[in-house]
Here is the input.
Amino acid sequence: MQGMKQEAAAAAAGMSVRTARQWQDGPMPSATKKSRAWRTRQDPFEEIWESDVVPLLEADTARKLEAKAVLEELAVRYPDKVEEGQLRTLQRRFRDWRALHGPAREVFFEQEHQPGAQGNVDFTEANSLGVTIGGTAYVHLLFVFRLAFSGWTWATVAFSETFEALVGGIQGALWELGGSPVRVRTDNLSAATHELKRAGGRAFNKRYKAVLEHYGIDPARIRPGKSNQNGIVEKGHDLLKRRIEQALQCRWPSKNVGI
Here is the structure.
């Protein structure tokens, strides 16, 4: 609005000229608001908070208790004090109490992935999809390759978590991708790692490292027992299986086939 007349600036902002003049000479409306520390209405849970609600929150160490379930229970106990429209108030009281007195929450640091930097691989069971061939259950796994930055996913059928299935899956993904990431991360598969008897822990097998070196890829793995570190590809398992389930559902029943 710089350089415009007040009439034009007010019209562009959707306000009257009088209001525009007031804002130009005086403080902005947001600067005149004062924070209040008093309640505008009576707290409906004041009398029953310490006796009925706090014990439930103290026992809820897993933070699974929901305000809606508690409100329904309180409405049964105190029908003359509690009603459905007080849910938001109870949710805010839940939030405030947990922030001050509740169990500490696990801290997560968001990862920032760079394009082409990392691919994650994993095997996942696929028997739950219920695929059949000629009426016989098709017992198999899925090998999944997923890029950390873009979420690009490639999958193929596997029958066990062998070295051949692992390497074949990685090569198939790289050929389809037409390139290779800087590193590929796996969990501690026996097909890719072996246990160190003296030092403890696990290290990569020579032939697995040789395959990745051939493609100019650095091998990486998660820490034992830390499956969340491979969450990029594990998160994609449900999405992939859901797509396959939808494709199976869309097949014509008259064809009488399971795949």
